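Quiz preparation item.
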């Protein structure tokens, strides 16, 4: 028991000595110490003392000096259609009424719409056609589909691709923009009767199809979509 008391006193004395040594080495808190590192806060605030990363720098637009020419808003149109031609003037007029209009973007969209319309007509997909056609053109397409269905005829069609799609005219009609394209495509198409016999076209041959289609959009409307308003098949 006496040994236990001596050992206890020894460890107590050792603990006191160690405490005072640590106090002398580490010093006392003064209140000006840096706070402990918090990885979650650091990830949100970043290193305030370090140099800022280039991607955090936002360049403000430079104010145009007096007399300095403005950017040419017709540059894309002039590159697409020769200046001073009727086509160029028509595209410029559309640009004046719709600042977001770009001829190349329009052609890309028209090519997609062309394929969708051709295939929707072959499949009798009225819902897709209604979203892409004007009321008058839609009624004509639906009438043809109805006549085909009444005879139990079906169109077997495969879209191969578009060889050319060129804007041939552009104009503003009141608040409506009208653009006409000449489209040359390749298509495999055959119409079969109720018995499955081919009555038109050829299911094995790729045919060249030439169409002249006109798309229109009301530039006063918030609806950005163009619709097919006229079709003509070129001989």
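Solution:
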């Amino acid at each position: 028991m006496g040994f236990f008391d001596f050992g206890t006193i020894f460890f107590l004395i050792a603990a006191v000595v160690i405490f005072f040594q640590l106090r002398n080495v580490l010093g006392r808190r003064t209140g000006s110490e840096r706070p402990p590192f918090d990885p979650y806060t650091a990830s949100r605030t970043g290193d305030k003392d370090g140099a800022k990363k280039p991607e955090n720098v936002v360049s403000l637009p430079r104010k145009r000096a007096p007399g300095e020419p403005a950017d040419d808003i017709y540059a894309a149109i002039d590159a697409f259609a020769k200046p001073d031609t009727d086509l160029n003037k028509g595209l410029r007029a559309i640009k004046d009424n719709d600042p977001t209009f770009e001829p190349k973007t329009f052609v890309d969209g028209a090519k997609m719409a062309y394929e969708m319309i051709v295939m929707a007509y072959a499949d009798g997909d009225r819902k897709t056609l209604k979203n892409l056609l004007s009321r008058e053109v839609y009624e004509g397409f639906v009438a043809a589909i109805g006549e085909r269905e009444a005879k139990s005829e079906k169109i077997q069609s495969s879209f191969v691709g578009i060889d050319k799609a060129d804007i041939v005219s552009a104009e503003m009609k009141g608040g409506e923009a009208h653009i006409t394209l000449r489209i040359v495509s390749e298509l495999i198409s055959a119409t079969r009767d109720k018995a499955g016999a081919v009555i038109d076209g050829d299911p094995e041959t790729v045919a060249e199809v030439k169409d002249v289609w006109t798309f229109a959009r009301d530039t006063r409307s918030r609806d950005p979509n163009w619709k097919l308003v006229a079709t003509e098949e070129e001989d």
